[in-house]
């Protein structure tokens, strides 16, 4: 049933000797007229210059890089000339990449079979797996591995930095001739006759008040015969495309989780390279979906974090504070005590599963990776699926461009998905996450049944039609949560941790976090008064806070856009969805290392 639905409705370098991914090289393509200053407003801006490619890819994550490498491999194998460009909003490849990450190398084995010989940064194989149910702040029960479903075992997987893997993939792509432009945000989709023809990068040098500064540089149009959108979860252009082409007509609303992560340097005597540990239960209540991870990566790093389902109901809940509380459990504290937290970040992930995958192709392009929502929720793994969907889209696009097929839509990508292990894996676990709507205990029991016995063969498919924003209850229906103060050793206040993310934005630019037109009264009149301002708690960067109005005891919303980690949570969870997340100037945001 779901396979038929998938097939009919759709399930989507510059290198210099001294400095790879050198931003100034890109700006040489901007005309002299475009780089002089303008005294008038943005309406008087000159037209953008254009660069033409066969394929334009938005996003240098595993999906985008996988697609680019596969396209170039096919071009070489078939003696074809094919120009491929990747545009990436992070200051460098990998700087906006954050993931758990226990990496399943299945797709990488297909893409680059000799990755070990080529020095891929997969150096910590998983050696030990454990799963614990936390029953209180001081106790837990370990689940024997024999009772864990096969899919949750990590034999053959690696504990990695996905950021570093993407840097390595970028070097492989460059060697094949892919042009990579980091530090430039894709801010608009370029259309001609309702067909996607590429993207436009954001202008640089626009002041907060909308005026044009002396440092102004006009954005570029990067045009392609096909454009692949690999923006990651809740990508801003991907969401626009879904709405324009009605790609969600036959899919459920996507639902999300917020992952908050830290990296610690720990005492080598406590470190066990290759150890993987997951927990479920405390400190989250029995109605809130979520879990935690703790991974030991060479040489003496511990990657830890928590994912909280954003369909949680209590507006007083703070995913960040739940993580800080969890670290004081003896199971965790005994590992990191005496260590040093060196990095922090956060990112939303897709949790809707197969039912929430939209149609992935449209005239002129496709959605790949986490942009449309490919993630195995029980495994909490999506990197391998992102890479594989990028590869399949690349094969469909290459065939479309080189065989003279009619039309603008590479629909073969949809059929490839339906025949792939990506579809098979998602179909097998499609009911796991939806089962938790009956509570964590019921969901946990059903998941065991589904993963051990049913394995996707059940004749039913559970759906949902509620967005995460609509799942939030009013404050009057919920109990406030009192979180303990951080001790500065195991737990930290948010702004202290935020400094470890390296996040930075040009202060004098328009806010990329916009209140939607017609919703200007929602923050103070609805979010604050009815829901006790949940955005002031769920945001992992303290972007949203309510401060006193001048000459008044009333409060008003203050948006600290410079703090933004690009997690996209506000675009998902604010009451009435009053915030629209858009891209800031390229190069702004977090500067993740080893994430």
Q: Would you tell me the overall average pLDDT?
A: 92
Structural class: alpha+beta
| Weakly predicted, low-confidence segments | 1-42
Strand content: 15-25%
Q: In this structure, how is the largest beta sheet organized?
A: 8 strands, mixed
Number of strands: 24
Counting H and I runs of at least 4 residues, what is the number of helices?
18
- N/C terminus separation: 38 Å
Shape: globular
Range of helix content:
25-40%
Radius of gyration: 23 Å
Structure report:
- 26% of the residues lie in helices and 23% in strands.
- Strand 19 (361-362) and strand 20 form a beta hairpin.
- Helix 4 (62-77) runs parallel beside helix 10 (383-402).
- The protein contains 18 helices and 24 strands.
- The strands form six sheets. Strands 1, 2, 8, 9, 10, 13, 19 and 20 form an eight-stranded mixed sheet that branches. It has a seven-stranded mixed sheet with strand order 6-5-15-16-17-14-18, with helices on one face. It has a three-stranded antiparallel sheet with strand order 3-7-4, with no helix packed on it.
- It starts with a helix and ends in a 14-residue tail after the last strand.
- It is of the alpha+beta class and 595 residues long.
- The longest helix is centred in the middle third of the chain and has 20 residues, at 383-402.
